[in-house]
Design brief:
Blueprint lengths: L40 E6 L14 H8 L14 H4 L2 E6 L7 H17 L3 E6 L5 H8 L5 E6 L20 H7 L3 E11 L7 H9 L2 E4 H7 L1 H12 L4 E6 L21 H9 L6 E7 L10 H17 L11
Parallel strand pairs: 1-2, 1-3, 3-8, 4-5, 4-7, 5-6, 7-8
């Protein structure tokens, strides 16, 4: 059992609309807090979208995700898992970005995650646009490349944008392969769809051995079969999970900058996460929630629910630091 300090208050005791909103109503523990050494899973906000190429807004994602996550309760209704009782989870706050300097922001993100990982804490991230994942991977895969299961409607494997700009939310995984952060033979991208500029990104994926599963194949085969293959590709090695909310059809998740029609519904969005059970996950993120396009807050609530589902997969695999009789 986890330390009682890390158990969020129940809606029976404190109304959902009351109190300071943290992720899942968990305690806020800073990087210089004495209790940092007790944390098993740290939920981290990366309020940064300087890699966005069209509609901005994901810099506001972590704040809205925190607010909507106050609706999350203690127990997974389908699996019965109570992640906050399995291990100590805490809100570690936000990485402070530099909104006018993209490279400095990435350095700040990497440094923050290096501190988190050095403390032995599993990083669970709420973005931010998808470029945020690159500096996180620089910390997670600092010593050895990792595999990746990637849910998205785009590959984010483009060479560059705007005649030479190498760092956008459409390029992070091209850079990650080039920098030796990802083992491309252990990378599976699921849900890819929409109109395209050309085949450059897919050709690169083929050339390095990345498995790309289009939305047409996803729907034809079904969640169970696709996720079986994804787990086989990831194998037993360290694996990162990156979940772009635009993987989900915009009918269910309109609050994102680059929506693509024809995607999974909200149940399938959760179902793929449950099929991650058994993967050796060493870090995960949920990115591209954009509050300016999310008038009802429904996209952020789906995003918060997906983070909770990830916690329910990850928490039982970790050895808790504190055992309470």
């Amino acid at each position: 059992m986890s330390d009682q300090f890390f158990h969020p208050p129940s809606g029976f005791d404190l109304p959902r609309f009351a109190g300071i909103p943290t992720f899942m109503r968990l305690p806020h523990v800073t990087l210089d807090d004495a209790r940092l050494s007790d944390v098993d899973i740290g939920l981290i906000g990366v309020p940064w979208d300087s890699g966005t190429t069209n509609r901005p807004g994901p810099r506001h994602g972590p704040r809205q995700l925190r607010d909507m996550s106050t609706m999350i309760r203690a127990q997974n209704g389908a699996t019965g898992i109570r992640p906050f009782e399995e291990v100590n989870c805490a809100d570690l706050g936000d990485v402070p970005p530099n909104p006018v300097d993209l490279m400095d922001s990435m350095n700040r993100i990497t440094s923050f995650y290096q501190t988190v990982l050095k403390a032995g804490i599993f990083p669970m991230t709420a973005g931010g646009d998808h470029l945020s994942t690159l500096p996180i991977l620089r910390a997670v895969a600092e010593k050895h490349p990792v595999g990746m299961i990637h849910f998205d409607s785009h590959t984010d494997l483009f060479k560059d944008y705007f005649n030479g700009s190498k760092y956008t939310h459409g390029t992070p995984f091209r850079r990650a392969v080039e920098e030796g952060l990802l083992d491309p033979h252990r990378v599976c991208m699921i849900g890819i769809r929409g109109t395209t500029y050309d085949n450059e990104d897919r050709d690169f994926a083929d050339s390095v051995g990345i498995r790309v599963i289009s939305i047409e194949e996803f729907h034809a085969r079904g969640v169970k079969d696709v996720m079986l293959e994804a787990r086989e590709i990831a194998g037993s090695g360290n694996t990162y999970v990156s979940y772009d909310i635009d993987f989900v059809d915009p009918a269910f998740a309109p609050g994102t900058g680059t929506p693509e029609i024809g995607g999974p519904n909200s149940f399938q969005a959760i179902e793929v996460v449950r099929h991650l059970k058994g993967v050796n996950i060493v870090g995960a993120d949920l990115v591209e929630v954009s509050p300016p396009f999310d008038a009802s807050g429904g996209t952020a609530y789906l995003g918060a629910s997906l983070i909770f589902e990830m916690l329910c997969v990850i928490a039982p695999t970790l050895q808790p630091r504190v055992s309470m009789d």
